[in-house]
Predict the 3D structure of the following.
Amino acid sequence: MVEKKEMNNGVELDPRLKAITSSIRVVPNFPKPGIMFNDITTLLLKPKVFRDAIDMFVERYKGMHIDAVAGIEARGFIFGPPIALALDAKFVPLRKPKKLPGEVISEKYVLEYGKDCLEMHVGALEAHERVLIIDDLVATGGTLSAAISLIERAGAEVVECACLLGIPKFNDSCKVNGKPVHFLVDCLM
């Protein structure tokens, strides 16, 4: 029996994507009514699938001379460090307010269901460093926009924003603050 290969606009899909998609659980009405929360913790319980997700990001960014991977709290901390290590880059945490000791720069932003702020250590990035921003999900682009602003205020260059999941309107042709957004799989609804 010949297995049919999955295609997207005539392009063969990586078989790892199916396992990644099927490993994500949807939790309705969390954290508030009307939100369909895509829970990645179920993916983390499957080491092969988790490794495949990391490997797919590393394969995309290998050879792009990434100096730093900036991970957005909290789930960007799960994906960011292994990607940074594989790319021989430093990891820069972008945290919620009052979580980093020492001098920080801050950026406020609006979420789908509230307001928040990201902070980064002053001096974490140097001028002209090439930075990859990583998070688990892009929904409205607000968090990525704040991360881009922080990094650019430090004088560094954002190469791309990468997320495990994305709302279908955010695909490889979409940009946030003029920066490309890449994600592995569509959010599940």
Remarks:
- Residues 1-5 have pLDDT under 50 and may be disordered.
- The chain is about 25% helix and 35% strand.
